[in-house]
Write a structure and sequence with these properties.
Layout: E1 4-13, E2 16-26, E3 31-35, H1 42-50, E4 57-62, E5 65-66, E6 77-80, H2 92-102, H3 107-120, H4 136-148, E7 154-158, H5 166-182, E8 186-191, H6 194-200, E9 203-208, E10 211-216, H7 218-223, H8 228-233, E11 238-248, E12 251-256, E13 259-264, E14 277-282, E15 287-290, E16 298-308, E17 312-319, E18 322-329, E19 341-346, E20 352-355
The chain binds adenosine-5'-diphosphate (ADP) and magnesium ion.
Length: 356
């Protein structure tokens, strides 16, 4: 297993800066995600890693080898793209064998390797089919087998599931993680789908405009976003403006139009001054409701229309013309609207205090 280190990587297209000093270290055996909106530079970064683009400056290391200037086929990286890109005239086995033939592996060894690769993506028994005789999910499994069979040092995946329907996408997520872990691969996976990243990543880099905004585990980036961009991109949230009353012990007490809130500072070394303007981020699922007030982080408001989804309900909640999004698992407040006024409250650890 190898680490992949990206140091101060810059890629420009003419005057356009697509990657602006990217610094990322992917640990050996890690399933690492690049997540961000369309156009933020994910594919460009992956293509630099694969060797299809030459960066303007910066370095890329696979293990301790500097591969920045190496040709793609000498990097031993496996690639899986959004489109399966199988050769339509070849059988499944021939598609998977292609890379091994190029490496001039002997025919008996090729047969064994192809069989193993197909088995590991659960496609044994399909060796003699043509790609057009397979479903989308099966084709993507074959594309994975084709990338794995050459025993790559790292696997690069660019939106590998976005051509699949919702159900299959969901099943294949876990499958890709299983395959990466079984093969002990260092893998870098590009997506714009937050749920895909949260559900299977070891760590995620959230990108915006050619820069890395934040790197962390799924829980870290979801519960401790360090910017409004990350808080908003990685899920749904409420932003509430306020001013700092005082800070201490990694927390801040903040005055807002909804009353005072105590919350967590996501960066312990970046403490705002008293009186500074800040923004609170509180996610919809972090609220609870009661007819009696809670001790802190609580305000009296009016619960509005609910959208019922079965296991969860989404509410609009109003106070002084401010509208918040709140949700409740196992909904209790749908039919209690004779009592429209309710206290909404939240735990200190669910309030993130963002500097501006
Ligand atoms: P993502 O994969 O995150 O959607 P890309 O890496 O494809 O984003 O693109 C990042 C930016 O670089 C975009 O503004 C895009 O238009 C630009 N770009 C990507 N490839 C090229 C290219 N070959 N020539 C010129 N501009 C490019
Ligand atoms: Mg892309």
């Amino acid at each position: 297993m190898i680490a992949v280190r990206i140091q101060k990587l810059v890629k420009k297209f003419g005057p356009m800066v697509a990657l602006n000093e990217i610094d990322i270290t992917v640990e050996p055996g890690e399933l690492f995600f690049l997540l961000g909106p369309s156009g933020c530079g994910k594919t460009t970064l992956l293509r630099c890693l694969a060797g299809f683009y030459k960066p303007n400056s910066g370095k890329i290391f696979f293990g301790d080898k500097d591969v920045t200037r190496k040709a793609p086929h000498r990097r031993k990286a496996g690639m899986v793209f959004q489109s399966y890109a199988l050769w339509p005239h070849m059988t499944v086995a021939e598609n998977v064998a292609f890379g091994l033939k190029q490496q001039r592996m002997s025919r008996p060894n090729i047969e064994v390797s192809v069989e193993e690769a197909l088995a590991s993506v659960q496609m044994d028994g399909y060796a003699d089919r043509k790609p057009n005789e397979l479903s989308g999910g099966q084709q993507q499994r074959v594309a994975l087998a084709r990338a794995l069979v050459v025993r790559p040092r790292c696997l690069l995946l660019d939106e590998p599931l976005s051509n699949l329907d919702a159900r299959l996408r969901y099943d294949m997520r876990k499958e890709i993680r299983r395959i990466c872990k079984e093969h002990e691969l260092t893998a870098i996976y590009v997506t714009h789908d937050q749920k895909e990243a949260l559900s299977i990543a070891d760590r995620i880099a959230i990108m915006s405009g050619g820069q890395v905004e934040q790197i962390g585990t799924p829980q870290e980036v979801y519960t401790r976003p360090r910017s409004q961009f990350v808080a908003d991109f990685i899920g749904t949230t409420n932003f509430i403006p306020g001013t700092v009353i005082r800070t201490g012990a990694g927390e801040a007490l903040v005055k807002t139009e909804l009353g005072e809130f105590r919350g967590v500072l996501p960066e312990p070394d970046k403490v705002p001054a008293d009186g500074d303007a800040v923004t609170l981020s509180i996610r919809p699922e972090c609220w609870k409701f009661d007819s009696a007030p809670a001790e802190e982080n609580c305000f009296l408001g009016e619960i509005g229309r609910a959208v019922y989804y079965g296991e969860v309900a989404h509410y609009a909640f109003f106070k002084n013309g401010i509208k918040l999004k709140m949700s409740e698992l196992n909904p209790r407040h749908l039919e209690k609207h004779e009592q429209k006024d309710l206290y909404a409250f939240t735990e200190v650890e669910d309030v993130v205090v963002l500097s501006q």
